[in-house]
Amino acid sequence: MTTKGSGKGKDGAKNLTISRKMSAPKVNHTDGTKVSGAGLALVGVPIEQDAAYWEWHIQQTGGAGSGPDAPRIEDDESNAPKFGVATKKDGNFYKALASHAADGDATPEEDGTALMRSILVEDGDTVGVAVQQSDLPMVQFLLNGEPLHDLAINRFRGAVYPSIYIREGFVATGVFDEDNWQELSPHARFGPLIAARGII
Predict the structure, then answer these.
(1) What's the pLDDT tens digit per position in 57-76?
(2) CA–CA–CA angle 127, 130, 135 (5° rounding)
(3) pTM for this one?
(4) pLDDT digits (tens, 9 = 90+) for 87-139
(5) CB of 47 within 8 A of CB of 131?
(6) If 0-12 CB within 10 Å is exposed, 13-18 middle and 19+ buried, where does residue 55 land?
């Protein structure tokens, strides 16, 4: 049996952070919800409610794809961060992924990003992610409040976690408290992510 925490209390806030155990070794974690580096990063709480919304606030810091002679990030989707959800990962997954990478590029199913989409972002952008699990499981994406209908993911199963595949040259901050959202969720039913916790 579980109870729901709003994420605003001491216990809930602790859980609404990027999980080091479920994230790639090359991902840097700061302040619990800020990520940089390169690779997949998962929040340590599965989505258990019918509809949830959160945001990623983007900073562009340079790195890969920066400089006057480099190709523009917005023109190269392969360098864009990916947003969405992912199934639970562990150290063994990342070891297997490193082995696949030595053989060539991994597919989205192999690298854990099958339920994620590349979104071309720049400094100051806000990416909203809305997940619905009741009628038709769906992941929707918004860029600075504008829906990206073509990127929506329909039909997924199982426990999923809020996730980002961060790229060099970007810092992303996960924002799970609606008081700090920069945009509105796409519908009133999409509330903030709720951390479930066991009763002791």
Answers:
(1) 999 987 554 444 444 445 67
(2) 160
(3) 0.83
(4) 999 888 888 887 766 666 655 557 789 999 999 999 999 999 999 988 788 99
(5) yes
(6) buried
Q: If we measure between CA atoms, which residue out of 158, 159, 148, 82 comes closest to residue 113?
A: 82
**Buried-state track 131-157, b at ≥16 Cβ within 10 A, e below 16:** bbbeeebbbbbbbeeeeeeebebeebe
b/e sequence 175-190, b meaning 16+ C-beta within 10 Å = bbbbeebebebbeeeb
DSSP sequence for 132-194: E-SSS-EEEEEETTEE-GGG-EE---S--EEEEEE-TTEEEEEE--GGG-SS--SSTT-EE--
How many H-runs (helices) and E-runs (strands) does the chain carry? 3, 15
Q: How far, in Å, CA of 40 to CA of 38, rounded?
A: 7
User: What dihedral do alpha carbons 76, 87, 20, 51 form, nearest 10°?
Assistant: 90
